[in-house]
Amino acid sequence: MDLVTLEEYSYTVTFIAYGIASLIYIVYLGYKNENMVRIATLATIVGLITNLAFLVLRWMISGRAPFANGYEFLMSFTAGIAGAYLVAEWKYRYKIIGAFVMPIAWLILAWIAMKMPDYSRSATNLMPALQSNWLSIHVATAMVSYGAFALSLGTSIMYLIKQSMENSGSRSGFSKRMPSLDALDDISYKFIAVAFPFLSAVIITGAIWAEYAWGRYWSWDPKETWSLITWLVYAAYLHARFTYGWRGSKAAWMSIVGFIFVLFTFFGVNYFLSGLHSYGGS
Amino acid sequence: MAKKPVKEEPNVSPGESRDSADDRGIINTIWNFLSSMKLGIILLLILAAASIIGTVWVPRDMYGQPDYLRFYNNPVFNLILALLALNILICSLNRWKSLRGTLKGPKADVSENFVKNLKSHSSIKVKTGPDKAFEKIRELLRKKGYRVFTSEEGETFKVASDRGHLGIIGPYLTHLSFLVIILAVMIKFSGLAGFDGTFVGWEGETYSLGQVQGIDNVDFDDYFDIRVEDFRTEYRPGGREIKQWYSDLKVIDGDNSYDFTLYVNKPLVHNGIKFYQSSFGHQFSGKVSGPEKKDQDFSIAMQDYVQPEGTDLFFVPMGYDDANKEVKFYLYQGRQAVFDGGVALNTPYKYGDAEVTFQDVRSYTVLSTKKDPGVPVIGAGSILLIVGIVISFLLRQRRIWSVIRPEKEGSLIEIGGISAKDKRGLDRDLEYIASELKNR
Ligand code: HEM
User: pLDDT, tens digit, for every residue of B174-214?
Assistant: First the structure.
């Protein structure tokens, strides 16, 4: 089997594995069965391995770091999400979180399958400006940062759901099996606390790359600007949290809004705005 | 339970209040306004909103290209940045005292009520005497990595302790880094140092820095010459995609002269002046002929055209592959492209009755040239930013106080703590200490 076919398989297996994991985690919301959910964890692990295998294969095929076009960015993003989820599951042992996080990764892969034409998925060569190790570090840090933000999104949504169920006096087992509000708030914050330094690193490595490529560390290109905006929004979150005690639902809402900015920086800028990074799009 | 809004304890030591109460006069009012965190958060969000506007409503330059800088260089935007910088500066000055207090450590001499009113708090009765309990608590706290401070009042023992106190330096470094970065940007836009220019050089020619367009703020002592040996375009196998553009240069500066091959992502830096591959051009010469077989000589620039007499054909040279000595060109018949490829120098290319021979190519390289003393400052600011943020998040301050007094048949321990960032970690420590105490 040649590498290209192997790479296609690794995408397909990842897609199926994340799909199975998402499905089981969602079923687990209403139906508690530890053996069943163990399969979901296993599927996530398998999916992460094939997801990483995809990136390695892409690297071997193209002879460059697999961070050059929209397809490769998205595959890194899903690896970041699955990785962040596995860390959270291993650290906090609340498998129910998977129902709110793994579907994000799966939906991204489904979107690739449905919307991305073959030509934009093939391993193309890099134009001269993109031939930089700083670009690779830039995308690798984004993978960690965005994955952790996605996890925080999941736990923030859980927070709001659980809170509204408690407020309406619901006693469903589902609500009871979710982590406590305090724990959800804490997990959301902890993952933002990881994602924020990485986001800072994304912006800085991007600036270093631009300085080498164009002699301008910052040119207010829309992609740059939107990453700065995202960063400012999360900085506001952190300040509101520590100086005004904005925890709980306010913090959860801010984390959701922050993630909308992440997504806009990732997708929106390429579709709605134009700029230097437009070649990075899909 | 969720309905009750919880006001977290602000991250201050007992005895201090966050907003100083003495609002004497207008200066104090302004100072308080400028140092308030509320202003800080609002400014962060205003900055975000203003940035969004600049990505949606984009000024265009005379060629219709987006000119982002024009928006972000306007005075209103700069005013927001300046206010934010001022806010951070005053905020940091104001908190200087609490920083020192935190580094010194919490005071042990607190009242029993203070401990009882802490949100994470418990009362524990033990059978041992206060002095034994005191020893045990100290030992447990130390084991958990706390710094311990004590005071005694007769038979009552008091303990204050903290860990992760160095974390408070983190936000300071982060905020300082923001000021440093703004400073660097101001250096650049003041026009007092450095410049942004363009160097255009033909192969085989030597240039002095004085010929760089836009050169400014460079000492004559720092001037040097540059000889452009060669400009080369490297194509990928297949000859269609460009792999890289190279400028082979010779830097001529007395004893410090050397050859340098510059390409995209590999700038030349000499005497603090940087050169980046930015563009290029070629002049092509050769001959064409039409149905009458009469040679016409031509010399045209890249993307210009030559039309053999008596035809509707246009040869448009687009680039030059140095390795294969091949001219890349388009051929149009009327408006229709009929050929897109390459032909070697001095090799005729025929199309119908027409024929073209490219005989010579001269190339020039265009390098954007700049000097920006702010760059190392930005670099330092960036490192400071990352270090500051990592410290803020890794070292999460927890503080525990305890008051131990004798009770009949043993002693009563009031123990409680605060942690703005790691309440769960704090509660775990408190639980651990409580269970160890009860186990005796
Ligand atoms: C771009 C601007 C800013 C950035 C990147 C920034 C970053 C940070 C970070 C990373 C922290 C630490 C958060 C944590 O410990 O989890 C922090 C804390 C803080 N910041 Fe900022 N900040 C900015 C602007 C401001 C402004 C304008 C103010 C002024 C009022 C301010 C006041 C504070 C205060 C009072 C703290 C809490 C310090 C503590 O907990 O000891 N910050 N900031």
Answer: 999 999 998 888 887 777 888 989 999 999 999 999 899 98
Partner residue opposite B2 with nearest CB, options A166, A213, A275: A166
Condensed to tens digits (0 to 9), the pLDDT of residues B75-89 reads 888 899 999 999 999
Same domain, B205 and B159: no
pLDDT band at B428 (very low <50, low <70, confident <90, very high): very high
User: Three-state DSSP class for B216?
Assistant: coil
For B329-357, what is the mean pLDDT? 92
Residue A258 at interface with chain B, using a CB cutoff of 8 Å: no
Contact call for residues B7 and B418 (beta carbons, < 8 A) = no
Number of H helices, E strands in chain B: 10, 18
φ/ψ of B73, rounded to 5, equals -95, 5
**Would you call A212 an interface residue with chain B, using a CB distance cutoff of 8 Å?**
yes
Nearest residue in B to A124, CA atom: B241
Q: Do residues B223 and B239 lie in contact, with contact meaning Cβ atoms separated by under 8 Å?
A: no
Distance from CA of A260 to the nearest CA of B (A): 14
Q: What domain range includes position B149?
A: 108-164+398-438
Q: Is residue B294 part of a domain?
A: yes
Residue type, B19: D
Q: Is residue B179 part of a domain?
A: no
Owner of token pair 């306007």 = B74
Around Cβ B228, how many Cβ atoms within 10 Å? 22
Alpha-carbon distance of B184 to A217, in angstroms, equals: 12
**8 A C-beta contact, residue B282 and residue B362:** yes
Please compute the mean of the pLDDT values over residues A59-63 and round it to a whole number.
85
Confidence class of residue B7 from pLDDT cuts 50, 70 and 90? very low
User: Chain A 94-133, CB below 8 Å of chain B: which residues?
Assistant: 125, 127-129, 131-132
Judged against a pLDDT cut of 70, whether residue B19 lies above it is answered with no
Q: Are residues B324 and B372 in the same domain?
A: no
Has residue B6 been placed in a domain?
no
Residue B417 counted as domain residue:
yes
B47 and B85 fall within a common domain: yes
For residue A243, the CA-to-ligand 1 centroid distance in Å is 9
In this complex, is the C-beta atom of A242 within 8 Å of any C-beta atom belonging to chain B?
yes
Instruction: Give the SS3 label for residue B123.
Output: strand
Do the chains contact at B368 and A214, CB–CB below 8 Å? yes
**For A102-125, what is the mean pLDDT?**
86
- Residue in B42, B68, B74 to test binding to A, most A beta-carbons within 10 Å: B68
Is A232 part of the contact surface with chain B (CB cutoff 8 Å)? Answer: yes
Cα B167 to middle of ligand 1, angstroms: 12
**Ligand 1 centroid vs B207 CA: distance in angstroms?**
50
Residue B421 belongs to domain with CATH number: 3.30.310.80
The DSSP H or E segment spanning B246 is strand B242-252
As for how many domains chain B has, the answer is 4
Distance CA B186, CA B295 (A): 60
Question: Residue B175 C-alpha to ligand 1 middle, in angstroms?
Answer: 6
Residue B319 neighbours by CB under 8 Å, 6+ apart: B233, B242, B282, B302, B327, B328
Q: Does the pLDDT at position A280 exceed 70? A: no
How far is Cα B281 from Cα B300, in angstroms, rounded to an integer?
11
Q: Which of A77-81, A88-92, B236-240, B313-317 has the lowest mean pLDDT?
A: B236-240
- On whether any CB of chain B is under 8 Å from the CB of A276, the answer is no
**A156 to chain B, closest Cα gap in Å:** 15
B11 lines ligand 1 (CB under 6 A): yes
Q: What is the pLDDT of residue A61?
A: 87
Residues B261 and B296 placed together within one structural domain of the fold: no
Query: How much of chain B exceeds pLDDT 70, in percent?
Result: 94
pLDDT at A186 over 70: yes
Write the residue with the smallest CA distance to atom 18 of ligand 1. Answer: B171
